[in-house]
Design brief:
Length: about 375
């Protein structure tokens, strides 16, 4: 089976480095918020081209904490997409704010600017841009739009590690960026992890307080925060895996380029190619097919794993049925949800695997 993620096939050298990192932490006698976390935070900030990175428990907490550092909460609206992981919107709800859903561009499945314009209100405090599937696109338009309307541009970078727009890395383009290091992400821990990245020292300080119960100094709690700390083991493993990230990302991009060049089947539509290679890190490679479930069953039968990201748009989940949205509806997101299918595009795939996926897709009738 060609898998969506194949951790067991990772290089032996990486495994040995991970085992050494685990031993280092065990022997250090310090397990939460220590030297390894500081070191990983410094490395991740550097990778993202920002001054600060704050390690937290997971990507959803990174989003919630990020919103709370800006005091975005009750009565405030945050415009975002219905085509994302549930955690994006759940984080807005947990911050106490009101998510407002705008529709997507069917060519990329990313937020549509005209729809966002229709969602603006005097209560809008931020646009939460999700770099879905690993793509950053038209960021200059979003920067101009947010500057012009006086709202924050916030980045959900959970799927976009090292994706770049005109040389600038995801997370450095808006007020802050929120990362997830869930194991399946392009940079994944061996468990949960996340980070907030920012250029703003006040946001960095606030995030450090909020992640640790709202504690400013030991046993002093000026705020009611969360318990959302990155542990030493995950930080050490993330530093180890970070050394491999650029090479793994290049492999994903090479596979995607082969897909764009060789998948030719009138029944299958590919999303728009990125404008530049650096704009997409292919956390997921997503197809469109009007008979998605039939294509999915066919691929599985042929030994090719696949998944839909996401089969249900946010506004169709029971806790979100009431959410505010574009008055013209969310038809593009609904159509995408019905037709999308992700195929394997992960760094452990061999050239033979890639050729097999292409041949099987081209033979689909
Ligand atoms: C776009 C997006 N946002 C947020 C999250 C939440 O990250 P985590 O699972 O680390 O809480 C995810 C992960 O599934 C995601 O894909």
């Amino acid at each position: 089976m060609i898998l969506m993620n194949d951790f067991k096939a990772e290089p032996e050298a990486l495994l040995q480095q991970e085992l050494a990192a685990v031993e280092r932490v065990l022997r250090s006698g310090w397990y939460v918020l220590g030297h390894e976390v500081k070191q990983f935070e410094a490395r991740w900030a550097e990778q993202c081209g920002v001054s600060f990175a704050v390690g937290v428990g997971n990507g959803m907490d990174a989003l919630e904490i990020g919103l709370r550092t800006l005091q975005i909460g009750v009565g405030d609206e945050v415009i975002t997409t219905p085509m994302t992981a549930f955690a994006t919107v759940l984080a807005v709800l947990r911050a106490g704010a009101t998510p407002v859903l705008a529709d997507i561009d069917p060519e990329t499945a990313l937020l549509d600017l005209h729809s966002v314009e229709r969602c603006l209100s005097p209560r809008t405090k931020a646009v939460l841009l999700v770099h879905l599937y690993g793509q950053v696109r038209q960021v200059d338009r979003w920067i101009d739009f947010c500057a012009g309307t006086g709202v924050h541009l916030l980045e959900d970078c959970a799927q976009a590690h090292l994706a770049r727009w005109q040389g600038k890395t995801a997370g450095s383009l808006g007020t802050w960026g929120a990362y997830s290091f869930y194991p399946t992400k392009n940079l994944g821990a061996i468990g949960d992890g996340g980070a907030i990245v920012t250029q703003n020292a006040a946001i960095d300080q606030q995030a450090r307080i909020l992640r640790n119960y709202g504690q400013s100094q030991r046993y002093h709690h000026p705020q009611a925060g969360l318990n959302s700390r990155l542990d030493e083991l995950q930080a050490a493993l993330l530093s180890t895996r970070l050394a491999w990230l650029e090479a793994f990302t290049q492999r994903r991009q090479t596979i995607a380029q082969a897909y764009f060049a060789h998948i030719h089947n009138p029944q299958i539509r590919l999303l728009a190619e990125p404008l530049a290679l650096e704009n997409h890190v292919y956390h997921l490679f997503v197809l469109q097919c009007t008979e998605r479930d039939r294509l999915s069953a066919y691929l599985t039968e042929q030994g090719i794993a696949n998944l839909a990201h996401y089969p249900v748009p946010i506004h169709q989940h029971p806790p979100c049925l009431h959410l505010q949205r574009d008055p013209q509806g969310l038809l593009a997101a609904e159509t995408h949800a019905a037709n999308c299918l992700s195929i394997p595009c992960q760094p452990q795939m061999s050239d033979l695997d890639v050729t097999h996926v292409i041949e099987v897709l081209n033979a689909y009738a």
